[in-house]
Fold each of these.
Amino acid sequence: MQSIIEISWIELSLFSFILLIPLGINYFLKLALAQEIIISSLRMAIQLVLVGLYLQYLFILNSLWVNLLWLLLMALIGTSSIIGKSHLPKKPLFLPILTALLVGLLPLLLIILIGLLSPAPLYSAQYLIPLAGMLLGNSLSGNIVALQRLFTAFKDREMEYEGLLALGASPAQAAFPFIQGALKQSLAPSLASMSTTGLVTLPGMMTGQILAGVDPIIAIKYQLVILMAIFVMIILSVTTALLLTTRKLINHSGLVLVALKKE
């Protein structure tokens, strides 16, 4: 097995010139995305370098409380991102979405760390932070799609919802078809990805480990753990988010208490 091939900063800088390709497409097709492409690319690079430097320090420090604080910060930022991208009011939804992410994240982390990997110490930043990042990061889009679908359904199918209430259905019963549809749509990309993984796509974590010199079979085992955990994280967090938000935003008479706009 070949040892790790180092990429120098000069080589990485030269490679970044491939971003001229999307900028060129933007120019010829007049997409008006040049500023967003440049800013997003710069933010990505700066954030990753800073996080890399911080993680080096975090791995050396390996403090339980610092690791938990970083974990909470990741969940808070993820919650804010979900609500912002869903274009929904932040104040009433923040706690339900944060709760949903933690309900999905914490049990899975405990199962992986205690039952599978057993690092020493158990809260080792080398395992805790990357695992949490992968689980949270991959659940964001599912939650965004689900919330957008749910509240769009309330808006576009208002007469159907009110008709079910008029026929004697409880608010939970009337909202159930909307929750069901939102959950199905949010899971569709994950199910499609899972069914083609290995044949059409090679997941990033596995590819990275193989490039770093890890035996492919070991890399596959880790990737299977992560993919299964990600799918469970998505379905747990999305289901909890949908149930908590409908309970929070629909009163006892079935009235939806918020409009589809951010505060």
Amino acid sequence: MLDRLQSLADRYEKLSELLCDPDVANDSKRLREYSKEQSDLQPAYEAYTEYKSVMEELESAKALQAEKLDDEMREMVKMEIEELTERRTDLEERIRILLLPKDPNDDKNVIIEIRGAAGGDEAALFASDLYRMYTRYADTQGWRVELMDANTNDLGGFKEVIFMINGRGAYSKMKYESGAHRVQRIPTTESGGRIHTSTSTVAVLPEVEDIDIEIHDKDIRVDTFCSSGAGGQSVNTTKSAVRVTHVPTGIVATCQDGKSQNSNKEKALQVLRARIFDMMRQEEEAKYAGERKSKVGTGDRSERIRTYNFPQSRVTDHRIGLTLHKLDSVMNGEIEEIISALNIAEQAEMMDKGE
């Protein structure tokens, strides 16, 4: 571990030199690449620097302890050694986590797709609740939300809603939300006061750039149509809505929220790239997955990951057995506690596997 840390520190310091080089400063591409690489290395570099300082202090304290000291001084040195030993242990734990393999998509923006599943109108209403929850969470993170496509029902719920969250590290946190979300509550349409169970599915896809996956013009079909609102009523007499089909895979993406056909086409292509990339990634992972299953779930959107029980104001994440009795806060976007717990569980599993 120390050899790896020293190599990392050497690279960090080399990057500092490169960033001061006038040739690099005048090359925006290299400047951006080196700055991002150094930013990624900085947490581990700072932890290693602190670790070396603690080790030096600990060595000095142990050397002092070996000398002839009065009782008061010996007790002070003993306390210092205990404190430094505890700091060393904490730092070693933090460094082990920092050195874990990083998901290459973690820094990317995300495209989120929410669909009402089992439960009809109630599932669509819950899908709109999830959309509100995520947009409020995005606000707390300083991220920007961009609606890409929506299909509503007569009650204002979402049969389907697709939106992008722009912000560094968005995927690193939102990736845990993929799966089936179950709600238990009395629907507004229920006159008998009975509790119903409905589900909505969430798919979180990293934004895919042109460099990540190439789509050839000959492989896509573009159709245009009039945008429509709730109930299928036309709200736009021009054909600004766009449907893009990737012919080789049959994957389709639609966008009608933008004001122009060109902007809708570009957004639809963003969704299409993300969906194709996600399909390829899942196929690749399936080759190696076998019978292994992560403690925080497979991420499959058909897997039930969380239950929101309104009568008991309870939310339970089934992957890690976490239950919180503050449903109102969660639905208002306060989901950081859940996301942090899932991240810690994933890190613990990776450390157990020695990855």
Amino acid sequence: MEASSGEQVYVIIPALNEADAIGRVVADIPAGLVREVIVVDNGSTDETAARARAAGATVLSEPQPGYGAACLKGIAHLADKATEGSIVVFLDGDYSDYPEEMPQVLAPIRAGTHDLVIGSRALGAREAGSMTIPQRFGNWLATTLIRWLYGVSFTDLGPFRAIRYPALQALGMRDRTYGWTVEMQVKAAKQGLRCTEVAVDYRRRIGTSKVSGTIKGTIMAGYKILWTIFKLL
């Protein structure tokens, strides 16, 4: 999937037991847009890794559970590849995002006006049932706190996002679990990165969510997100 322009675009997709979805996610990334698609298998017990390879992705293994742990593994893979002009896109592996919307997520960075772009599900069209009430409330609460405490307005903590590689390095990402997305946005706000959002659509995921699909996952994710917001003050 060689990028057609001089910019190198790398896609990192954390995946845990997404065998039924991952091939479709990789296949829907626009042809010629991306230099490398990196699927980080986060301890799957199904055929996630094999189907990702069959779709043309590079597959890494990160057995330590955690969304952030998988993202950090993907970033480490770029250490000897990415350049100052590279852009890193993060995308979920459950087919809830629309990979074909990647050009509009990349556009503000390619235009040179922004460093971090969040794909906002709140601004886009959401399929009925794609986000639970706790998810929607959690997003509202977290983004409200970020605005009050850090002075930057977001509407979503959506996983579909793009960031310039040098900016990503400067953030020094650390979170290995549920706080990954909010850590990135809070650190970006603190460091004065040029942040924006674009509307992205969202649909019901394939399979059951490891976070919002369980009461424990929902509570733990909510706690970690709020803890991260206040920890970084």
